[in-house]
Structures are given as structure tokens and as C-alpha cells.
Amino acid sequence: MPMRAPSARRTGAALLLLLAVLLAGCTNVPVQQPPAPVPTPPPQPTRLVVGVGDLGAGFNPHLLADLSPVTTALAALVLPSVFRPDANGVMQLDRTIATSAQVVSTAPFTVSYELNLEASWSSNAPIAAEDFVYLWEQMRSQPGVADAAGYRLITDVRSRAGGKAVDVVFSQAYPAWKTLFSDLLPAAILKDAPGSWTGALTGGLPASGGPFRISSVDRARGEIVLDRNDLYWDTPTVLDELVLRRMDGPVLAAGLASGEVNVALPESTPAIRQILGGLQPAPKLQPAPEPVVTQLGMRADTGPLADPRARRGIALLVNREAVRAAVAPEALPADSFGLAPSQPGYASTAPPDAPLRPNPVAAAQQLAAAGWTRDLTTGRWAVGGAPVQLVLAAAAERPEDVRVAQAIAGQLQAAGVGVTVIAPPGAQLFAQQVVPAVPPTPTAGPTPTTTPLPSSGSPPVRPSRVAPPAAAPAAPAPATPTASPTTTPPAPPGDVEADMMIVPRTVGGDLDTQLASDYGCPAPTALVPNPPRSPTGFCFPALQPLFDELLSAAPRPTTAGVVEGVLWAQLPVLPLFQPVTLVVSTPAADAATNVGPGPLQTGPLTGAQRWRAPNE
């Protein structure tokens, strides 16, 4: 047999050896598996916490009862507006809502709006003509609203292009038309909801037409959480969440020190400045006047203050400076019915004899001229043969207003004028002539001397006709009334008319519209045969032609000054002060937000959709 070559034998042996090794490896050596992947935790949402003093009564930005820094902030971030104020307060078209808005006719005066086709509510309903109609209908007919005069000039709102174009027709030329249709509300949700104008907005805003949406309102915890509106059609928010949290001074300071709170909007007071003064690093503090002026309203349509001389006499017993020092020491004194102290061009419009300071002698002369008499033994004032017992009301949900009412009541009591302080819900106080005589809660502060009022089952009774207990006469009036009321048990509930009330007045918009809205006499129309009254019932027909002129295309430059003079003579309200919020930001938050006072109408949270989380 032929012999194999040595190289072939060596190759075969190597193959056999390799096969043996491979077989051994398959049976004896386990295969090592790759390590299991570690799950990546989901990213934490970016958030920024804003400390606030109070959440407010509700969130309808058009209601006097709901006016608050929180409501202003929510409206700016959640609700759509056709025009928005820029840094200088000039109204600019918001093209995320409307691509154009212009006057297209002068006979009749007509404004045409072309709406952004992408603009929609977070409920998926389009932002459309029905939202314009809903706001117009409510503003022209509901009581207790702010700045309604412009809406009352509208005679028709017409829909085009499937609701994405709107023609608004006016009864006359209206130069301030750009101030209308701000803070639109979702008509599809609200128009059929029970209590839609007030009740449906006490727990939040049911849909968003802005970069944020309200995800929760927890009044028990004092917290509102806004998160990114995922259906927003324009640039999304940088933050995932923006939290508004109610907290008092010490808790707020601790939150800022720990970094739990980034920005704060407390009431500006020496006490809060002192609390924040010890923080290191020191936070930035900026005053931010609020878009309201606090006033003492006096009922002008009925009761013991229907005579303007009686209203003037009461005003001459009020020490406005003492009230401000006791309740809002860093607020701005207000001496005008139109512009607010923080606005450019503001100046006192008060004539030399205006009741800006207490003057008991002049007050006695005015009250006597109005038919009031004074018991020289007790010092108490009477009218119609019965001791005067005025009812002074403040909205229960507005604690600063309640404290103002109690301070004024103490001054009037000391001057011999009986006063009962009540605190009904604001939505009733500013909308109804008769309100429940609910006493202030103990946390609101001391309650002045009170007189029992009718029970809730009794018919309404003029409070001034209810005589006080004979065993508790008021002391003679001192030369200068004090600001501290006497503490006694509160009055029982009942249904009464308020002779006086603490009422906020909106500022920052169109001055002529605000004057006509606050002090004018709305005329009946076919659409609204019974227009709502003002909260104080004031209507001075001689002024109405001047208000009509202010709303026209060419008012005389002197007309607003004439109106101010007549208002000082009639005195439907006594201006008190403009509240001031303090904008507090840590160094890290300041760098992340550049937060400031913002435009007067929209406040410090304007532009929060561009804020980022501190240390991000």
C-alpha cells in the first residue's frame, strides 16, 4: 500500500485534536451571558415653585370678587387674549390667537378678527367666535364685572369662516377696542354649566388656551399646579410644572432658604421684609403694584348715605392714612378716581376741600346738613329719629378688605356712628343689593361693636333702622378717630343691604373705559332691558353725557378732569390705596427667570412659559 506523506498525517492529527477541544468546550464550559441592562429611571419633571399669600375666591378675571394676584397670573398663562400689553403697557396683537384684527368699517363701526386656525382649547374645541359671543353676553348683562362699558357698545358679534373669523359691530366708534376680548373663556364648556359665570370657575379654569394648563387646585393644601399644555400649538413651555403654593412669612422664608421655593409674591410689608432680611444669600426684592385700587364704597341709591352730604361727612371721619398704616403700610395712597398711583401721569385729582384727612368739625356740619342729629350726651348720631347703625361689608374671601373694613368701623364707632361689619361672599356682595349678614371669621381680625340684625327668615330690613342696645352707647367722638375697633360678639346672620363696602377698582386698562364702567349709568337696550347696577348703586345722570363723550372718538382733553371733579363732589367711593405685592426671588431663580413686576395688567408671572428651573 502506498505510504501517506508526513505533512498529511500531521494535518489530520491537528484536525482531530481541534475537534476534540471543541466538543469538550460544548459539553463542559458554560457560556457566559451579557449582564442584564439596568432600567433607567424616568426623568423628574422640571418645576418651579412660587409662594403666594392667598389663592383667592375664584379664577374669573372679569369678576370684581375674584380679583387677586393669583387670578391675574393664571389668566396671563392659561387664557387666550387677542391683544396683550407689552413691557410699556401698549396693547400688541397676540398672533398665537389672531393673525389680524382691524377696523373694517366706520358706518357702523366694525372690527374684524381673523383667528389663528391652530388656536384651540385643551378640550380640543377651537378658539372661535362662540367664545367672543359668550364673553360679550356675560360682560354686558352680569353684575359685579370689571370694565364692562366697551362691551355694552357692541350691538352684534358675527361668525365667519366656520367660527375662525369674527366681525364685531359697535353702536359708535370706540377707540379702545383693542382692550376687548382679553382673557377669553371656553364657551363650549361654560355656557351650559350650572353657575357658569361664577360657580364653574371657583375651582379652576376648565380648559386652557395658553401654554400652561391647570392640572389641580387643592384649597385644603393651598396649592395650584400648572403643567405644560401638550395641545398648545405654539412654542411649548420650558418648565414641566409651575406650582403656586400658599404660605405665610416664616414658612416662606424657610422655603426660600432651603431652595424648596424659588419665587414668592407676598404682600409688601415691613414684617415680610424683616423676615426675609436674614436670608443668605439675600433674595432680590422688587415691588409690584397690583392692578387694583382699594376703595370705601358708599351706597348712593338708598338708605342713610343716599345724600352726598352724608357720604362726605362719613369720609371726613375716616383717617385714611391710619387705615393704610394698620392694614397695608407699603401700599400707595390713592387720591384719584381714574389713574392709579403707580401709573405714568398719575396726580392727585382731589380739590382743596376733598375729604382726604379726618375733620370732625367739617364732618358734623355735613352730617347735620344731611338731616342727621347728634345726642350731646352719648355722642351718637341718629337719622330719622333712630340711632344710626350702618352696615359695612367686605368680601369674606378678601382678608385684607375685611381688615380695612374693621379699621374704618373702629374709627366711625369712635366718632359716634354705629357700624356693623359683615363679610358675605364677594360674588354676592358685588352683584346683589341684599346680602347675608355673615360676620367676619375670627381669623380676619377683631370685630367692632355690633347690633343684632334680622334672622335669615325675616324680610330684609334697612340696618340703619335697627337700634343698638341701650346698654352699649358709643363714647363721644375724640378729636382724631382711632383705627382700632372694639371687640364684641359678632352679629347673627340675616339679609341686609350694605350701606358701605370695601370694593376694588381695576386699573391699568383704558382710563376712559374704566371711568364709564365704574361710575356710569348703563342705559336699557333691546338686548339688556335691565342692565346691572354698580355695586354701590351710584348713578348720576348729569355725568352720563360726559362718559359717553369719553368713550367716543374725540373726547375733549378736559372732560376726564371735569368727571373727576364731579365724582369728588358726589363721592360714590372714597379712594384709599393701591396694594403692592413684593416679588421675591433667590439668586438662582432670578438667573433662571429674570422675574420682575411685569406689565401692570398681567403681573410678575408674565412670560413664565419661558422660565427654566433653577440650577438646570
What does this structure look like?
By secondary structure, the chain is of the alpha+beta class. It is built from 16 helices and 24 strands. It has three domains: about 50-55 and about 200-290 and about 580-610, D-Maltodextrin-Binding Protein, domain 2, CATH 3.40.190; about 80-185, Dipeptide-binding Protein, Domain 1 (Dipeptide-binding Protein, domain 1, Alpha-Beta Complex), CATH 3.90.76.10; about 290-580, Dipeptide-binding Protein, domain 3 (Roll). Helix content is about 25%, strand content about 20%. The strands form six sheets. Strands 8-9-10-1-11-24-12 form a seven-stranded mixed beta sheet. Strands 14-23-13-22-18-19 form a six-stranded mixed beta sheet, covered by helices on one side. The chain has a four-stranded antiparallel beta sheet with strand order 4-5-7-6.
